Amino acid sequence: MSLQASRSSEVRRTAAAAARRRGRGRPRVGDALPVLAGAAWAVLLLGALPIQGSFGPGIGLHGGGAHGTGDPLGSTVGAVTDVAASVVVTPTWIAGWLLMVVAMMWPLLVPLANRIASGSYPRWRIGLPIVAVAVATLLWLAFGLVAGVFAQLASIPAGSLWWQLAALAVAGLARWSARRARLLTRCAVTPPIAPGGRRGIRTAARAGAVEWRRCAILCGPLMLAMVPGHSIVVLAAASLSVWWEARHPRAWRDPVPLALIVVAGIGAVGSALLGG
């Protein structure tokens, strides 16, 4: 009996090793996400160059100056002038927000995509991770639309310095939340996901929603800072803050994310003083 059990165990180990070898050469969604995020960063950096002008109304990559106002500093700090443009949610703004989500948030989804792929049937190893990433991206789009519409209805100036500093202050203060510390320890836990079929699609979608909810609690204030417009320094510092914390989930014991939030605040002020 023990000999038969030993042979069965050996067969299972051999089959598992063969499956791992077959899967090594196959493309994974988790490998593509950093590449696509890098491409998004390239577009954002090109858009930040003075020779490129701006993407159009609503994206606000250059602070107030990116919206074509005559007084960049005045619109950035929210001065009441005739030329101060308010946030306007347009198709261009939506495209810019999605580009920012890809650049900032897709690298955080790489572990989730890899965990889903490793537990899926071979023909579902691409489809199920894509479902999870798509759901998380759509939820971030909805998050941005709600915040953008609120900013538009409230007539928040494009590139508002006060909005950015308020959101960054909330992000800094939230680092001492006990609930946030507990949530950080659960970021590596993925809900059970079926290996394929309709149930696999449903559970992958649920995993993407759960991952988004965790990120929205942890990174939501930093994302809110981007809604009316921001400099590339603010986006880079905020991105480094969330990426560092994802790799080193030590909550308030880690000073690096807080220092990067401070850098983002300095970048927002500097962008205002320099006129974008």
Secondary structure topology:
Layout: H1 2-24, H2 29-48, H3 72-76, H4 91-105, H5 110-118, H6 127-153, H7 161-173, H8 178-184, H9 197-224, H10 232-247, H11 255-273
Helix pairs in contact: 2-4, 2-5, 4-6, 4-10, 5-6, 6-9, 7-9, 7-11, 10-11
- Biggest β-sheet strands, sense, barrel: none
Proportion of strand residues: under 5%
The first-to-last residue Cα distance is: 76 Å
Which radius of gyration do the C-alpha atoms yield?
Answer: 22 Å
Model regions low in confidence, pLDDT < 50 over at least 5 residues: 1-5, 18-25, 51-84
Percent helix: 55-70%
Folded structure, characterized:
The structure is a single chain. This protein has helices at residues 2-24, 29-48, 72-76, 91-105, 110-118, 127-153, 161-173, 178-184, 197-224, 232-247, 255-273. With 276 residues, the chain is mostly helical. It is globular, with a radius of gyration of 22 Å. Mean pLDDT is 79; it is low at 1-5, 18-25 and 51-84.
Question: Summary?
Answer:
This protein is 66% helix and 0% strand. The chain is built from eleven helices and no strands.
Which key terms come to mind for this protein?
276 residues; 11 helices; disordered N terminus; mainly alpha
